[in-house]
Design brief:
Number of domains: 1
Largest sheet: 5 strands, parallel
Number of strands: 5
CATH architecture: Ribosomal Protein L15, Chain: K, domain 2
Distance between the termini: 55 Å
Radius of gyration: 19 Å
Order of helices and strands: HHHHEHEEHEHE
Structural class: alpha/beta
Helix content: 40-55%
Oligomer: single chain
Length: 141
């Protein structure tokens, strides 16, 4: 009789932290992996569940990330409001309000439209520095 010794067979307890790390390690984009780690660290350090929520969405497949148009921001965000998008911001639509937007990536037309309206386009780390607790931020997408 042949016995096969396997790591999973001997250790049946699941370690969810290792599973999450394993999922991140499958990502080949090193900046994405660093961004996810920074978001999780900010969530723990500042006790802000928003950052962990964004990190978990970015851990998933990129085909499941939302692509949000500027017109959706115009409709959903108040003047001088803050928005975060766990994906890409596209440039379709018109924007008239000044707002601060953070996303994983922006199209050039979206960036131009937000900046011409007087708003700011930030990375996640820049938004974490300005609003560590994640309050008054609307998640779009």
């Amino acid at each position: 009789m042949l016995y096969i010794h396997h790591n999973l067979a001997t250790n049946l307890s699941l370690d969810y932290a290792k599973m999450s790390l394993k999922q991140i390690n499958r990502k080949s984009n090193s900046t994405l992996v660093k961004t996810i780690a920074d978001l999780k660290e900010a969530s723990r350090k500042n006790e802000a569940p928003l950052w962990k929520s964004i990190a978990m969405r970015l851990e998933g497949p990129a085909r499941n990330w939302p692509s949000v148009n500027v017109s959706k921001l115009e409709y959903n965000i108040d003047k001088n409001g803050k928005a975060i998008i766990p994906g890409k911001l596209m440039g379709t639509g018109i924007i008239t309000k000044k707002m601060t937007v953070a996303a994983y990536s922006f199209t050039t037309s979206a960036k131009d439209k937000i900046q011409s309206a007087g708003g700011k386009c930030l990375t996640y780390n820049e938004l974490i520095k300005s609003v560590p607790k994640g309050t008054n931020i609307v998640v779009v997408g």
